[in-house]
């Protein structure tokens, strides 16, 4: 009996500590979720251009074509993980506008959670980890991206930040699986891949773990394949996205190319080469210095990568600094005295790149009284002759005038309202979404 009592006494503090940690985590998640929803509530009824022109149509197409079974068709140039979630909202009978906003807001909460966990590694006690998480979920660009724009950049960002957290914890396979899921969600996850390369070259990450990145991408394609989707289309979705930008030079991001109205294709190619050389040079220099790759060094490496890659690459949109917005906040909490200004400057640049596309159409509409004052603004209903059509399915109605209805959105060009002969100017919204 005495031995049993001793064991109980010895184990009880451990159980109590574990419960305290779980309770703190649950309270943190609840706080992040409540604050995130409250901050976004005012924008939930906003109908952005991308919603009117694209997301709503995708939702309708899924609803009209058997729910999940609609995923056998190529009606979107987003990869299927997002479409799984959108199809789930259709199945749950969630209204389209709420559904499009609900998906990214849920990822906003997950993003805040991983920011909390990473900052907790720096501050095991105290309120700073929760403060960092709340700062991230309340960043203007993060709030506007999900609740006003209806974009889902928080999806790949949350998974990528989760991958970084597990790298810091030494969970190599889990980290690479999350990076693979982020890559399957959106191509912009590659902005953090230099960190994986650095880890492998410093032998902090077994190279075999990198197989989890394409493995997770392929695994997430399986449900769509079972539903009848074409394997080739699933595997080349990002090549399809890149082809839409071929020959165009569309800059809406505050990066090295923002002052150029047009640029020859050769200069775009040079920009890509310059980015590759710069990234490899920095990784190589870091490897030669043989850093220990502490938690702080990983956070800084991730922040630099998220800033440098979209800054040097051509054809970047303003939302492509989303990871940089988040990681500069994390870095500032890790080195508050030296990097307090980094998130302020990054947020300033990102937010002022957002404003022309979110607020300017409203002001012009109010001044002129004409909802169509901005071409392709999305604030007016789509032309009635344009109907939803599955790409490549000629049995369904096509847009009048021979324009190809692709139902594209997000990061690529749109031909939904305009013929292929239209060549978008860098500031023309028609060629942007």
Automatic annotation (TrEMBL):
Region of interest (Disordered), ranges: 394-433
Keyword Flavoprotein: no
Keywords tagged on the record: Membrane, Transmembrane, Transmembrane helix
Extent of Polar residues compositional bias: 406-415
Transmembrane segments: 26-44, 94-116, 128-149, 172-197, 209-229, 266-288, 295-313, 342-362
Keyword Transmembrane: yes
Domain of life of the source: Bacteria
Name of the protein in question: Uncharacterized protein chaW
Gene that produces this protein: chaW
């Amino acid at each position: 009996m005495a031995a049993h009592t001793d064991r109980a006494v010895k184990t009880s503090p451990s159980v109590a500590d574990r419960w305290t940690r779980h309770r703190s985590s649950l309270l943190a998640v609840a706080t992040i979720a409540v604050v995130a929803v409250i901050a976004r509530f005012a924008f939930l009824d906003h109908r952005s251009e991308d919603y009117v022109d694209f997301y709503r149509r995708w939702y309708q197409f899924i609803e009209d074509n058997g729910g999940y079974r609609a995923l056998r068709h190529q009606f979107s140039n987003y990869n299927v993980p997002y479409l799984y979630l959108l199809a789930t909202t259709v199945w749950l009978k969630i209204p389209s506008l709420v559904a499009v906003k609900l998906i990214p807001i849920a990822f906003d909460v997950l993003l805040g959670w991983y920011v909390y966990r990473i900052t907790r590694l720096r501050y095991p006690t105290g309120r700073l980890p929760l403060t960092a998480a709340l700062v991230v979920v309340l960043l203007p660009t993060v709030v506007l991206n999900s609740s006003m724009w209806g974009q889902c950049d928080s999806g790949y960002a949350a998974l990528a930040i989760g991958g970084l957290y597990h790298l810091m914890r030494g969970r190599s396979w889990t980290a690479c699986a999350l990076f693979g899921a982020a890559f399957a969600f959106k191509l912009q996850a590659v902005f953090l891949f230099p960190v994986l390369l650095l880890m492998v070259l410093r032998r902090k990450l077994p190279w075999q773990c990198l197989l989890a990145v394409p493995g997770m991408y392929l695994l997430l394609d399986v449900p769509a394949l079972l539903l009848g989707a074409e394997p080739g289309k699933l595997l080349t979705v990002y090549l399809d996205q890149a082809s839409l930008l071929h020959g165009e030079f569309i800059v809406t991001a505050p990066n090295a190319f923002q002052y150029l109205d047009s640029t020859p294709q050769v200069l775009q190619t040079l920009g890509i080469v310059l980015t590759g050389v710069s990234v490899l040079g920095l990784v190589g220099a870091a490897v030669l210095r043989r850093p220990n790759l502490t938690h702080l060094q990983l956070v800084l490496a991730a922040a630099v990568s998220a800033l440098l890659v979209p800054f040097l690459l051509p054809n970047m949109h303003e939302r492509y600094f989303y990871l940089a917005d988040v990681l500069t906040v994390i870095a500032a909490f890790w080195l508050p005295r030296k990097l307090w200004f980094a998130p302020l400057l990054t947020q300033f640049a990102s937010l002022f790149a957002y404003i022309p596309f979110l607020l300017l159409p409203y002001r012009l509409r109010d001044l002129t009284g004409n909802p169509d004052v901005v071409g392709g603004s999305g604030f007016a209903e789509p032309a009635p002759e344009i109907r939803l059509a599955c790409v490549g399915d000629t049995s369904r109605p096509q847009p009048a005038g021979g324009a190809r209805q692709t139902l594209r959105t997000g990061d690529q060009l749109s031909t939904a309202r305009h013929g292929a002969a239209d060549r978008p100017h860098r500031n023309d919204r028609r060629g942007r979404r």
